[in-house]
Q: What sequence folds into this?
């Protein structure tokens, strides 16, 4: 859990915290290691790290630069897995992650997963996700948007109204949970591809596809709770912020506290609501260097 790790400074004696992770599939363990390496990558600025983490974590497709970044991480993670600690990242991961309980066969399986993240590996994630949706909704598939709407209103709205309907519907249909300004997402998120056991012509067979979430959305883990209550302010019966704001705030707050040891404090609320991106609310602090060409007003989500 990245939260307790980033908040260790709040503990009086800074005692060690151990987190045990058990997964059935090598793909899940490989993703844990990748996301941790992104979180710890100080070569990226806090904004870029936050955006890239959320993109890899929750989007079925990635920007070209993100896909290239994931591919660049492959050899780093393979070296860490094989205990060839030649770089700073491998050494840092080795200080935090203990793989001694993994057998050689399990390590080999994880290494194969890392290598499958190459941009040269053919991955039809959009097609695989569509098949999952068709299998899930069966003959109701053509009316899926009505079913998405029903799911939101009956299962989400009253429990976590900060999850905006427009964002939820977009994720259900396209698999894009976190938009980075007006970016395009041409590359499949290969880290979401996995093998699952099934049957073909009566024989057991492992089949590669998309076996991830198509029901709940990635917003629950980071987008429904935060220490800053201003993120959940309601005005005219609508949330001023969305679950994407909350996710970005939580990620940035963890990075900030891990780096400085101090709890992150949001700037004072201005009269106008911020754009969709949480970063438009950080401009007054000048914590992140912004490109002059970035126009964050384009990120507004008209509620």
A:
């Amino acid at each position: 859990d990245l939260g307790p790790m980033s908040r260790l400074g709040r503990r009086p004696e800074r005692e060690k915290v151990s987190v045990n992770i058990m997964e059935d599939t090598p793909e899940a363990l490989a993703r844990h290691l990748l996301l941790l390496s992104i979180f710890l990558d100080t070569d990226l600025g806090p904004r870029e790290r936050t955006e890239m983490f959320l993109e890899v974590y929750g989007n079925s497709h990635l920007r070209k630069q993100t896909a290239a970044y994931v591919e660049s991480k492959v050899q780093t993670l393979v070296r860490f897995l094989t205990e060839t600690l030649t770089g700073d990242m491998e050494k840092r991961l080795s200080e935090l992650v203990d793989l001694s309980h993994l057998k050689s066969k399990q390590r080999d399986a994880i290494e194969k997963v890392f290598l499958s993240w190459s941009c040269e590996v053919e991955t039809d994630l959009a097609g695989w996700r569509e098949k999952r949706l068709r299998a899930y909704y069966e003959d109701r598939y053509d009316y899926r948007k009505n079913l998405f709407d029903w799911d939101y209103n009956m299962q989400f709205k009253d429990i976590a109204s900060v999850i905006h309907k427009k964002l939820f519907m977009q994720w259900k249909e396209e698999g894009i949970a976190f938009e980075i300004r007006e970016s395009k997402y041409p590359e499949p998120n290969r880290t979401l591809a996995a093998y699952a056991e099934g049957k073909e012509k009566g024989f057991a067979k492992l089949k590669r596809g998309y076996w991830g979430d198509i029901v709940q959305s990635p917003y629950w883990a980071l987008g429904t709770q935060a220490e800053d209550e201003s993120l959940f302010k309601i005005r005219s019966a609508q949330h001023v912020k969305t679950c994407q704001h909350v996710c970005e705030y939580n990620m940035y707050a963890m990075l900030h506290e891990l780096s400085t040891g101090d709890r992150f404090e949001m700037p004072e609320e201005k009269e106008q609501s911020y754009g969709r991106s949480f970063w438009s609310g950080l401009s007054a602090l000048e914590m992140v260097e912004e490109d002059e060409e970035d126009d964050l007003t384009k990120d507004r989500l008209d509620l």
In short: Residues 271-276, 283-303 have pLDDT under 50 and may be disordered.
